[in-house]
Amino acid sequence: MDVLTWQQVVELLRYDFVRDMLVAGAVLGLLAGVLGPLVVTRKMAFAVHGTSELAFTGGAAALLIGVGVGYGALVGSLVAALLLGLLSRRDSDRDSVIGAILAFGLGLGVLFLHLNTERTANKFGLLVGQVVSIGSTDLWLLVSASVAVLAVLAFTWRPLLFASVDPAVAVARGVPVRGLAVVFAVLVGVATALSVQIVGALLVLSLMITPGAAAVRITASPVRATVLAVVFAEVSALVGMALSLVLGMPVSVFVTAVSFLIYLVCRLVGGKRQRVQ
Predict the structure, then answer these.
(1) CA dist 23 to 173, 186, 248, Å?
(2) Run of H or E including 176
(3) Where are the transmembrane segments (predicted)?
(4) What is the pLDDT of residues 34-83, one digit of tens each?
């Protein structure tokens, strides 16, 4: 394992692909941090995993036909989000629907990779991430899609939070709970597609779920939980990328390790607070 010196790391910052990598990580950290607490509150961790499998399928299909992986992953995630939002109308159906979609997406993605005869690192990157392959076009897609997701979320955050915390009362108050569920599933689908290029389909939960799960462990305030989740996600993404550059290992190893360490610390802090109270 070749370990870089800090001087060599500073030299790397002169390259466009390194700067694009860090910008992508920062944008994704913001997006994942904002969505994370709502995903945890709505108990959608399994849904995020299922959506990531369809993002993998879309990315594999894009590789096969020769278009941008990011666009394929985005289409795959949107299809998964719409299917989850439309087919899981009852809570009792949700897990079975997600399981069916997850298995189908994974199998189809493997088929697309098998049909692709080109030797490319993007095949493996779809599963575990390959952030250094992000180009200016992918970065533009990431930034523009993130802005769109955050804009929609800004207009729907209050009713979404209400519907997430107490859906029965929200329905009684006239909140369009079913429509909001589909909208939120689409937002999560877009964020998941963007995450796949950073940490891969198999490790997408490390950014989309773990920071939010850590934040809700130490605060019951939705606003504070969102702020903390953003901080945790940013630290996980940027510190993970920095360690990847220094140690020359896959970025997903460090992103997942940092986010899990933060979660463990928050779980310990939250447990001590509960015992004191």
Answers:
(1) 41, 23, 19
(2) none
(3) 21-40, 60-84, 96-115, 139-163, 175-194, 200-220, 227-247, 253-270
(4) 998 998 888 887 777 777 778 878 878 887 887 777 778 788 877 877 77
Q: How far apart are CA 33 and CA 148, in angstroms?
A: 15
Handedness of CA 52, 58, 64, 70 (dihedral sign): negative
- Write the CB contacts of 56 (distance below 8 Å, at least 6 apart in sequence): 73, 76, 105, 106, 109, 126, 127, 196, 200, 201
Model confidence at 197: pLDDT above 80: no
Report pTM: 0.81
Whether residue 196 is contained in a domain is answered as: yes
- Taking each helix axis from N to C terminus, what angle separates 177-199 and 45-65, rounded to the nearest 10 degrees? 60
Range of the domain at 114: 6-276
Answer whether residue 234 is part of any domain: yes
Residue 218 within a domain: yes
CB 29 within 8 A of CB 208: no
Burial of 3 (0-12, 13-18, 19+ CB in 10 A): exposed
Tell me the backbone φ, ψ of residue 82, rounded to 5 degrees: -65, -40
Residue listed under structure tokens 């079975």: 96
The CATH number of whichever domain residue 248 belongs to comes to 1.10.3470.10
Residue found under tokens 């802005």:
147
CB 145 within 8 A of CB 32: no
Tell me: pLDDT of 229 over 90: yes
Q: What is the DSSP letter of 66?
A: T
Among 25-29, 180-184, 248-252, 254-258, which is the least confidently predicted range?
248-252
Number of compact structural domains in the chain? 1
Model confidence over 144-160: pLDDT tens digits?
Answer: 888 998 999 999 988 88
Position of tokens 């605060």?
219
Scored b (16 or more CB within 10 A) or e, 129-138 reads bbbbbbeeeb
Over the chain, what is the mean pLDDT?
79
